[in-house]
Amino acid sequence: MQVAYLTGLGQLEIREEPEPGIEGPGDVLVRIERVGVCGSDVHYYTSGRIGQQICRYPETVGHECSGTVMEVGSAVEGLEPGDRVAVDPALVCGTCDQCQAGRRNTCRNIRFMGSPGQAPGALAEYRVLPGENCLVIPDAVSLDEAALVEPLTIGMHAVRLAELYPGARIGVLGCGPIGLGVLVCAKIIAPVVAYVTDLIDPRLAVAQGYGADWTGSPEREDVVAAIAEREPRGLDAVFECSGDPACIDQAAALATPGGTLVLVGIPSTPAVSFDVHATRTKELLLRNVRRQRGCIAPVIRMIAQGHVDTGPMLTHHFPLDAIRDAFELVAAYGDGVIKATIHVTG
């Protein structure tokens, strides 16, 4: 089978390897069909690290994936060969205190697909996964959409953490795939008033299509002042989705006293600084988002029932042998890209 490897900064290589086989009764062999290129994948490609997670080349990457079940272990229930599935890329132990408390996203023994030193990345023709990590998708959901499920779950989890109520005023700073996921889920869960910012005009246009009530670019205007003019009491919740540390202070400035600041974006550096007095004097609640918890099945239903049009997010498609073009495009924010999808097979 073909497997994509990072072999150095800005270097990708396709290698041939033997196809894997099922090893345990709970395993499933999945033919990987689609893989979305995530911002974290691009961090590894351009910088070789995210925070304390450092590449030790060669590394496999990729985690936003969908595929087809080829074989199931003897103990697997609810799956059979031919099933199309969305994949939960977080492989957890199920026995630690976090898992037992229902916090599988903070499992003490978690192995995440495509993270250095953890589980193999999804950019391969076949992967063996726990059956519990494979969720069948209905006919109404395409394989492209199924690969988008994982990033959308980040948005849903972030919105759940913010505990939004009908009529809440929110800010979304950065409307790449994760920010758009936050916007879409917030609009579905509660009829919020949403203010969205980004540096890239095509992304702002997509946000408008998804119901943003106001959009603005920090390159053209003082977005904090512009939003404050419309919402002088501040916003109830602000979602920082860009990963730019400077946006944390911007988020704090936009939030109302007692409001919630949700840190969703992942900075490329291991440490950031922000004005702690701005968050302290407003007594802001800071919520960090660690992937998702219990959101995959609801997101699949959301797509299947037509509550979200995924088309505007799924902007670019590449075959596996053009993977470097996909990573370069996403790294450069080129051609209005929002989500580039690799067609691994098929």
How are the secondary structure elements laid out?
Blueprint: E1 2-8, E2 11-16, E3 27-36, H1 39-47, E4 49-50, E5 53-54, E6 64-72, E7 84-87, E8 90-91, H2 97-100, E9 111-112, E10 126-130, E11 134-136, H3 143-162, E12 169-173, H4 177-189, E13 193-197, H5 201-209, E14 214-216, H6 223-230, E15 235-240, H7 246-254, E16 255-263, H8 276-281, E17 285-288, H9 296-304, E18 314-319, H10 323-331, E19 339-343
Helix pairs in contact: 1-10, 3-4, 3-9
Report on this model:
With 346 residues, this protein is α/β, with parallel strands linked by helices. It has 2 domains: 2-151 and 292-343, Medium-chain alcohol dehydrogenases, catalytic domain (Quinone Oxidoreductase, Chain A, domain 1, Alpha-Beta Complex), CATH 3.90.180.10; 154-288, 3-Layer(aba) Sandwich (Rossmann fold). Helices cover 28% and strands 27% of the residues. The chain has 10 helices and 19 strands. The chain has helices at 39-47, 97-100, 143-162, 177-189, 201-209, 223-230, 246-254, 276-281, 296-304, 323-331; strands at 2-8, 11-16, 27-36, 49-50, 53-54, 64-72, 84-87, 90-91, 111-112, 126-130, 134-136, 169-173, 193-197, 214-216, 235-240, 255-263, 285-288, 314-319, 339-343. Strands 3, 6, 7, 10, 11, 18 and 19 form a 7-stranded mixed beta sheet that branches. It has a 6-stranded parallel beta sheet with strand order 14-13-12-15-16-17, with helices on both faces. Helix 10 links the parallel strand 18 (314-319) and strand 19. Helix 1 packs across helix 10 (323-331) and helix 3 (143-162) crosses helix 9 (296-304). The longest helix has 20 residues, at 143-162. The radius of gyration is 20 Å and the shape is globular. The model has no long low-confidence stretch (mean pLDDT 95).
